[in-house]
Amino acid sequence: xxxxxxxxxxxxxxxxxxxxxxxxxxxxxxxxxxxxxxxxxxxxxxxxxxxxxxxxxxxxxxxxxxxxxxxxxxxxxxxxxxxxxxxxxxxxxxxxxxxxxxxxxxxxxxxxxxxxxxxxxxxxxxxxxxxxxxxxxxxxxxxxxxxxxxxxxxxxxxxxxxxxxxxxxxxxxxxxxxxxxxxxxxxxxxxxxxxxxxxxxxxxxxxxxxxxxxxxxxxxxxxxxxxxxxxxxxxxxxxxxxxxxxxxxxxxxxxxxxxxxxxxxxxxxxxxxxxxx
Length: 277
Description:
By secondary structure, this protein is of the alpha+beta class. It has helices at residues 95-100, 112-120, 128-142, 156-162, 167-180, 242-245, and strands at 2-24, 35-44, 50-53, 59-65, 69-81, 87-89, 144-145, 164-165, 185-192, 205-213, 217-222, 227-228, 233-239, 248-253, 258-268. Residues 272-277 have low confidence and may be disordered.
């Protein structure tokens, strides 16, 4: 499947700000069953980008806008071809990777409550892959998707206690449950194409988890939709949790109050663009 994605982020300030410096993680991966055909990134006020790669393999574009400005607009356009495989082949991971993806991180603490829930919903004779699927199904069957019930700072243990959340929360929760059972797990940010939704929707931005299965690779599971990923998913960034894979991060100088507006437009590439009201 070929997908065209346009991701526009607008920062508006009620007073002029300056020296805006930031990082952008919006370039989709170009390997492991996903092919990046084209990628364009633009910023208004116009400025250049420095591209680097972090230790997780994510493409990061760094920018700086020094003059005073009331608004900053970042637009990314991607053309991606996806495949039907949920498995990223890898026979083994390094000791450092195992440590990073098995231990607590900013949004994924580990505690007795998480471990107890994982044990209750994992068959005692299950292998790594079966355990990961069982934990994904447990989230889908016991938690409610509810926008506004959490915020960007909500941790996995808070999601367990609250019983509801959104895709970021369920990805963190699956990661925490897997790690509590000794399974390396990591966070993935990207896009999800749902033909039932309008082409322009913030719900196209999505998050899921990958669990390492020894001898096979990273198994990509989406606890929000209770399934392994398929061609409607576009992988952009990975990390220990959201903090490592956030689409954007930045700072600026000034007392202006910031408001944020995000627009994501996604369609099958051979379809003609449509306009939504």
